[in-house]
Amino acid sequence: MHERGNVDQDDASPIPSGVSGLDYVLRGGYAKFRSHLVEGRPGSGKTTLGLQFLIHGAETGEKCLYITLSESKRELRSVADRHGFSLEGIEILELVPPELSLDPSQLQTLVHSSDLELGETVQSALAEIERIKPDRVVFDSLSEIRLLSQGSLRYRRQVLALKSFFLLNNVTVLLLDDLTAEHDDLNLHSISHGVIRMEQLSPIYGGERRRLRVIKMRGVQIRGGFHDFVIRPGGVSVFPRLVAAEHDVAEHGTVAVSDSSVDTLVGGGLERGTSTLLMGPSGVGKSTIACTYCYAALKRGEHVLVLLFDETKRIFLARASGLGMDLQPFANDGSLLLEQVDPAELSPGELSSRVQSAVEQSNARIVVIDSLTGYLNAMSEEQHLVLQMHEILTYLNQKGVVTILLLANHGLIGQMASPVDMTYLCDSVMLLRFFESGGRLRRAISVVKKRVGPHEDTIREFKISAAGLAVGEPLEEFRGILTGVPTYEGKQGDLLNDKAS
């Protein structure tokens, strides 16, 4: 605990915000004894952010005060209850009356802001601060002061006076503003020590997306850019934007093998710290190949993260079981982390956070994204997907994780086109195709790119059966594999036995 008047020791030092992820963005938290502006449209989460700031202070024994000019104490308590917050230890000063009080005597003790002159309103707040001598204050909101001021000059002077008062009293403050007057933004920005803007976006389809940006924090090299956040029961959680360069490089270890003949194609296995893209039409076997690598890793005792965009956990487990790979025990003991993702509800920042958590907390050594097509649907623009994926892949590569990405081509047969070009980001690319021979539909696989180590440049047939994955000998009489319409002109005897299918 600090001593009042002795501000040299920890003046402007970071103090925790009480919000998961926000301290990382702010490099420790809000600046102690300083005023911060938190701005955003109504419904963007300012009140919840402010409550979490005070609750954290109360838990550590600090005196906390919430000054509300726009919401009643009853409404605040309702918000807190829905989040499961306890407001014990937090003083609430309301300058508006409750909606309807059954106790007439209560009405005599409440003050309505519209009945007061600006000076009286501010004086009421200052008197309460002098009485309580709080360490943390949330002032909700400045828009009421703006309306009472009836002029930008008077408004700026009032906010400056408030800021000076808070500074003299060694109070750390969040000033909430609902952006009712956009043209006053820069005035407030220049006055405040730090500025955080919260936004709520409404996509054409799916749940709302929320993001925040730290516009300013004096003397701190903040983590810039937009950071996604959510408001769920329990409060605001921020997902800091993933910056791969800020993370240490981990040891890579031996190659990851699938214990199948696919390893021969890729030169013995997948190198640690590399990414592999499996491209092909729907149903050609991309998920099965990824599953084979996962199963082999799980049997070695490694942890695996699988992000499912296109199918449910039940279908994924059932399909693997049908191919002789019983993954259920690994899912039960937690070594297989299955995350079923709804693209309409998940923000890119939260996805990055889940991947990061699996790697750093659960020690996942293989990450599978099934598929990028589903992830693409979660993004509004392709450019964002590529940038986001570039950061995720770089991070995973530094951590020595084997990443397997699945990308479905448009269409099932005929000319193939990819919805997004990810080939230059990945270290290895496997191309999978259907082809027709002897009145049967068959599958072909080839490795067209591998940055690390040798790989085969042949085309092989592969077959999926109840016994798992089987890859045949190299087939030489192929043409048109890259067009998506391969034609096999070799001998039927060179193909895999049909009875095995």
UniProtKB/TrEMBL annotation:
Signal peptide: none annotated. InterPro entries: AAA+_ATPase (IPR003593), Circadian_clock_KaiC-rel (IPR051347), KaiC (IPR030665), KaiC-like_dom (IPR014774), KaiC_dom (IPR010624), P-loop_NTPase (IPR027417). The keyword Repeat applies. Keywords: Hydrolase, Kinase, Phosphoprotein, Repeat, Transferase. Pfam families: ATPase. GO terms for molecular function: ATP binding; hydrolase activity; protein serine/threonine kinase activity. Its EC number is 2.7.11.1. Residues 13-252, 253-485 form the KaiC domain. This is non-specific serine/threonine protein kinase. It comes from Mesorhizobium loti R88b.
